[in-house]
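S.,

Sequence below, as promised.
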Amino acid sequence: MKLDPEIVKARLASVERTLAAAGNEALVVFATGSTLGPSSRTHGTMRYLCDWDSHHVPSVLVARFGEPPVILVPNVFMRLAAREHHWIADVRLVKVADFAREAAALLGRRRSIALVGRNEMPAPVWEALAESVPGAAWHDATGMLDALRVVKDAAQIAVHEHAAAICDDLFAVLAREIRTPRPVFQTQAEIERAARAAGCEFIMTWLTVAPAADYCRFFKEECARVPERGDQVFLGIYLIYEGHWGHAIRGGTIGPPAPAHRRVYGVAREMLDAMLEKLRPGKDLNRLHDAAEAVLAQHFPGDDAERIFRFRHGHSLGLSYEDPIASAPFPQLYDATPAPRAPLAVRPGMLFEFHPNLFVPGLAGAAVGDMVLATDAGPRILTRYSLGLAEL
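The prediction came back faster than expected:
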């Protein structure tokens, strides 16, 4: 399932018209590839504009308004693949150190240039670019493009639905593979292998297995435990399918859950339900975080809440793991200096990952995660794997 190239061409043409109307003569985008997963803020912009993925190397898009776009990439195999599989005909092999020289040659006498990706561009590349186009006025177009990505169209939603279905399939893999006695990281490997086989260009998981789940465990050295009866099991999935993110969390226990497991999981479910109730067109997105926090405070008041480890209860999802603008109302709870939360209205077509969570030392942990689409009729959940404390 790929986006029709005509959809992407129309997007780029529309962006070019908007930027030209603001006085720009060209657009330059520096982006990293999908290999960086949630760490990239530029990959999503590149996918939105031209559906290009440079995977493990950076690339540059040069769009001279009224002329065919050009992509610069420093990998010969990437260039060969582009000739066969990508709609942009002019993909050039250029070393990263020569990005600026090649971009300047393409820009010619243009001096009013929109720019995206300065925040991830290596300093030597930016310095060389600024020197190679003397007298240029560089205009940051990030905010304009971010605004275009807040609401997803029908074609985007269809690909996200497929990504959600892959997440559902991977939870089924967990239920099957967790029964094999071996270190947890080997079960992770089986889950991630299945994601690759399903066509994902990026997959990352955390898999926490412990008598009382304590935090999200990603890495081999922290996932060496062999599961035992009575353990809690929580799986978090991060994947990219055709540029579109899929993300979900499910949990269970090996054998019957203990009363503490049920108690803490019940709080997480109640938090999720409170967030879903607030997802209505026109309502302030900030109220979703507040609703989850209110539920938590009811069950763990005062000092009890201070000892609980938590991460953010959700974020926007799209061509980036934390899609811009609509992720801001969900503060990262361990951030000492969170950004201010400005009011932001829910709009149909916004896509989110809701994953309320709490990890109570010495008691239990819980996290539940669903891909949720805002619609005129209220929330529509894209992930369908049974949401409950499964007995594995």
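The chain is about 35% helix and 20% strand.

Coffee later?
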